[in-house]
Amino acid sequence: MQHNHLRRRFRVWHLLLFFLVVFLAGFWWGERTEVVRIHLPPGATNQSFRFAALSDIHIGANGHGMSRWKRAIAMVNREQPDAILLLGDYVTSHKGIPALDDALKGMHAPLGVYAVLGNHDHWAGSEAVAEALRRHGIGVLNNRAVCLRKAQDEVWLVGIDDLWSGKPDWQRAFRGVPPGAKVILLSHNPDAALAPQREKASLILSGHTHGGHIWLPLVWLLSRAAGFSLIPHTEYRSRYPHGLRRERATWVYVTKGVTAGNRLPRWFNAREVVIVEVGHPPMPKDARGAVSQS
User: Fold this and answer.
1) For a pLDDT cut of 70, what percent of the chain falls above it?
2) Residue 1 above 60 pLDDT?
3) For residues 168 and 242, what is the distance between their CA atoms, to the nearest angstrom?
4) Which of 2, 36, 162, 248 could cross-link 166 (Cys pair, CB 3.0–4.6 Å)?
5) 60-76 confidence digits (pLDDT tens)
6) Can you give the pTM of this predicted structure?
7) Which helix (H) or strand (E) holds 251?
8) Using an 8 Å Cβ cutoff, are 33 and 71 in contact?
9) CB neighbours of residue 151 within 10 Å
10) 15/17 Cα distance (integer angstroms)
């Protein structure tokens, strides 16, 4: 009898130890940063364009999160992209703005660095955030477009202001973009994929959702059971909070982001840097996504 009682206690302690290890392993996993590689069909381009995309940096007060962010930038530099695309939410609040100069220092690419603003940037002070970006030579695509050229080929970057907190102007954003051009649309909020203007873009790059911040099945469970979700509310996120999707002729990628300065730790949900190859031979008929981990 006593032997059975001790055996049951032994099993209970083993079970508790197992759950503790899993619980702690989730935070270790959340500290990792993945390099996610996306290859898209060449379309109208013959040259290979390589872009690095980063979102939701969330630098906090006193530069909180700077070391994580610097590691992400080092990963980007090793990939040697043609251009770096920043998808918004550079700070968590106005207290992070003084640290932006340090955060943005040393960001460069042959075809430039370009940015759109997110909801946190507007809440913190959009003019101050945009000015910090411009001081470091970063093009702020606030409802405007820029053409990137490589040899005889070109790709247009179109940036739209944040759909939540900004003043998006689709007509102004696409002004000057010729019909049939290869367009990559930068929008912090993935609901841009639901806008009719989506059809003008070959690819939409967005962030905002943090990919749920924790293990997605647990996010869905919390949402259904308690009406609580760590994913910021958007129409598109309720279906596709992360990853590569196709909306008719337009590819959409929602990144989990870097979330360098967030106080809430990630759990079984790694941070990510996205590398997008456009027109890189050999090319499949459809887009494909691959992940390499660091």
Assistant:
1) 80
2) no
3) 23
4) 162
5) 998 888 998 999 999 99
6) 0.85
7) strand 250-254
8) yes
9) 8
10) 5
